[in-house]
């Protein structure tokens, strides 16, 4: 191994970014239960093939083995991860820290976008989502087609929401109401948090 690794230059970790923020040693605030992107920039003077890994707990971790990782923290806490890079001869590590916080508004938006893409609007207590067969205002089941599967509300606060004439309950998913007149008729179809 000495003849293979003799004269080897170890890889050098340049900046590490977490959701676009350069890691400086202070834990970066990220969202619990949402995907967070970690990008590790590495240079290697020998142009060796590099292997990347990350270790740590309380999160789902996806390793693309190209210096990018997706972390989905499952606990609300300060969490530390070891980034490990090897060129086959030398191993370098760097510890990074994140502060995972529960952000109900961000989770509501991510849930809405997962179903409706860009068609999500903040009503002040919830994100309203609608698909391409309808419009933002099609929040009742009357008419044809019936909009019950094409429109939803993702509540991130306990508050009255004048958009849909109802009270949002924290974490509730609400479908289009029936009948179409305004009233406390929006059906809770489940919870997303």
Explained architecture:
The chain has 193 residues and is mainly beta. The protein has two helices and 16 strands. The strands form four sheets. A five-stranded antiparallel beta sheet has the order 2-1-4-7-6, with no helix packed on it. A five-stranded antiparallel beta sheet has the order 10-11-12-15-16, covered by helices on one side. It has a four-stranded mixed beta sheet with strand order 3-9-8-5, with no helix packed on it. Strand 8 and strand 9 form a beta hairpin.
Summarize this, please?
The chain is mainly β.
What topology does this entry show?
Blueprint: H1 2-5, E1 12-18, E2 21-22, E3 28-31, E4 36-43, E5 51-55, E6 59-63, E7 68-73, E8 78-86, E9 91-101, H2 104-116, E10 120-122, E11 126-130, E12 151-155, E13 159-161, E14 166-168, E15 172-175, E16 188-191
Parallel strand pairs: 3-9
Antiparallel strand pairs: 1-2, 1-4, 4-7, 5-8, 6-7, 8-9, 10-11, 11-12, 12-15, 13-14, 15-16
Report the sheet with the most strands, covering strand number, pairing sense and barrel closure.
5 strands, antiparallel
Overall geometry: elongated
Determine the structural class based on helices, strands and strand pairing.
Answer: mainly beta
Strand line-up of the largest beta sheet: 2-1-4-7-6
Rg is 23 Å
Order of helices and strands: HEEEEEEEEEHEEEEEEE
Amino- and carboxy-terminal Cα gap: 52 Å
Share of helical residues: under 10%
* Strand element count: 16
Strand fraction equals 35-45%
Secondary structure tally, helices: 2
Q: For the residues shown, what is the average pLDDT?
A: 86
* Contiguous runs where pLDDT drops below 50 for at least 5 residues: none
């Amino acid at each position: 191994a000495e003849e293979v690794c003799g004269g080897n230059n170890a890889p050098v970790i340049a900046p590490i970014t977490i959701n676009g923020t350069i890691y400086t040693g202070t834990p970066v605030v990220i969202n619990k239960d949402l995907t967070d992107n970690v990008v590790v920039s590495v240079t290697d003077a020998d142009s060796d093939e590099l292997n990347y890994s990350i270790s740590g707990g309380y999160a789902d971790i996806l390793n693309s083995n190209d210096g990018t990782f997706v972390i989905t923290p499952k606990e609300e806490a300060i969490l530390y991860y070891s980034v490990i890079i090897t060129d086959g001869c030398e191993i370098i590590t760097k510890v990074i820290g994140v502060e995972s916080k529960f952000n109900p508004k961000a989770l509501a938006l991510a849930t809405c976008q997962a179903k409706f893409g860009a068609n999500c609007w903040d009503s002040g207590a919830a994100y309203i989502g609608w698909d391409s067969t309808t419009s933002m205002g099609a929040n009742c089941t009357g008419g044809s087609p019936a909009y019950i599967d094409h429109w939803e509300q993702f509540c991130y606060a306990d508050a009255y929401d004048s958009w849909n004439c109802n009270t949002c309950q924290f974490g509730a998913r609400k479908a289009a109401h029936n009948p179409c007149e305004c009233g406390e008729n929006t059906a809770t179809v489940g919870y997303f948090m």
